Amino acid sequence: MSEPIEVTQRDAGALRISVRTAAIMLAFTVVFTALMAGVYVVTAPLVAASAQKEKLALIGEVLPSALFDNVLLDDWIEVLPTRELGSSGAVRLYRARKNGEPAALVVEAAAPDGYSGRIGLLLAVKATGELLAVRVTEHRETPGLGDYIDPKKDKNKTQPWITQFSNLGFDTVPQEGWRVKKDGGRFDQRAGATISARAVTNASGRALAWTLKNRDKLFTLPANSRFEDQGSKP
Amino acid sequence: MSTYKDITWNGIWKQNTALIQLLGMCPLLAMSNSVVNGVGLGLATVFVMTMSNLIVSALRSLIPYEIRIPVFILIIAALVTVTDLALNAFLHDLYVVLGIFIPLIVTNCIVLARVEAFAAKNSVIASAIDGAAMALGLTWALALLGAIRELVGTGALFSGIEMVIPSAHAIQILSADYPGFLIAILPPGAFFFLGLLIAGRNWLDARANERMREQRIHHQVDHATSAPA
């Protein structure tokens, strides 16, 4: 007679332990999720501010502040995926103006064919047609070998590799010359690491050509609108 | 106090994560291509392991045995996320350098291994020391492996240091026309040189054991000759 009572007691005990364990797990989850959410809320504005500052600093490297007087980060065009820019999503293009006149375009582009995948680039193109400067925004090229495409990693501090593109247009170096010397072009590469240099050189030439082709349209579109180059869908 | 010394010695040498336990191979092989990368990942790991061991040890009486692993993972993941966000917000310059290493720490199974094997059973102070010592053991192995790979691969040391100290720059050790040895920097180089480091550490250990045995024999011989007198 006593057996059924024991069984139910044992079941009730097991159930109680299960519920208790689940409750503890839930409590830990809630506490630590709240901790992460709290830190996120506190840090989000600071993180956004430093991302903005970083973007401005990078734009400052390719575009001298004396060349424009508008609020650059407010005058942008969203460019839908474009083959020549190597973009797979929408990218922002900033328009620099001086006294209301077109001064330069700041374009994000990418080389898909680096030694270790994608190389992100930022280019400033003068309204008159010259490339002001290029900078590498992100890359995974081999440290100490292909990473000289980033002037911060370049051993040559007086004349980093990437500065050889500065202030050149298609009138000084024709479009077919925008290759590394090894491929019959006009730009140097470093021995042993041609692939990184080739990817950046080709992508810069492509992005410059695309920007110049669409220059007038890009400057006349209303601010903060979208632009799609129908012939250049990836 | 000698136990704290033992814990430290254990983490840094005797049970070295990288050379003895061979745990956490994924970040070890990926980030040991230069001294700066190695030390960067190492120091980020020191912080996370000290904190995770400390927190788990402090909460260990509250964690039921059956669900300890999910709770440990929850704590480690939350800690890494908080570190990532806080570093990004408050020490942004350091984050630019270390940022990519921090999510990698979650993939390092040594963090969970020490929480499970040590922090869940020991006092808060001992656990924190264990976490720090284990991660420091990883740090010096990463730095040494990074230095060897960088030197053989490029002939220079400390490339990328200018991201941490803007006034410093890489030091060319071998002659400037050293052609470089690409495979040392690529992933296979990590395996080659890690293998050599493990062999080197085993050799040092074997030599130390040999000396100890010789000393014991000498001691016994001395004892045997002096005993009758």
Task: Give your account of this protein's structure.
The complex is a heterodimer of chains A (234) and B (229). The mean pLDDT of chain A is 89. Chain A has a six-stranded mixed beta sheet with strand order 5-4-3-2-1-6. Chain A has 234 residues and is an alpha+beta fold. Chain A folds into two domains: 1-62; 67-232, no CATH class. In chain A, 37% of the residues lie in helices and 20% in strands. Chain A contains three helices and six strands, in the order αβββββααβ. Chain B is mostly helical and 229 residues long. Chain B has one domain (2-226). Chain B is built from eleven helices and two strands. Chain B has helices at residues 2-14, 17-21, 25-30, 35-59, 68-90, 92-98, 101-106, 109-119, 124-154, 182-185, 187-226; strands at 156-157, 171-172. In chain B, helix 4 (35-59) packs across helix 5. The mean pLDDT of chain B is 85. Chain A binds chain B through residues 20-21, 24-25, 28-29, 32-33, 35-36, 39-40, 42-43, 46-47, 50, 54, 142-145, 152-153, 155, 157, 192, and chain B through 33-34, 37, 62-64, 66-67, 70-71, 74-75, 78, 81-82, 85-86, 88-90, 92, 96, 150, 153-154, 156, 159-160, 162-163, 169-170, 179-180, 182, 185-186.
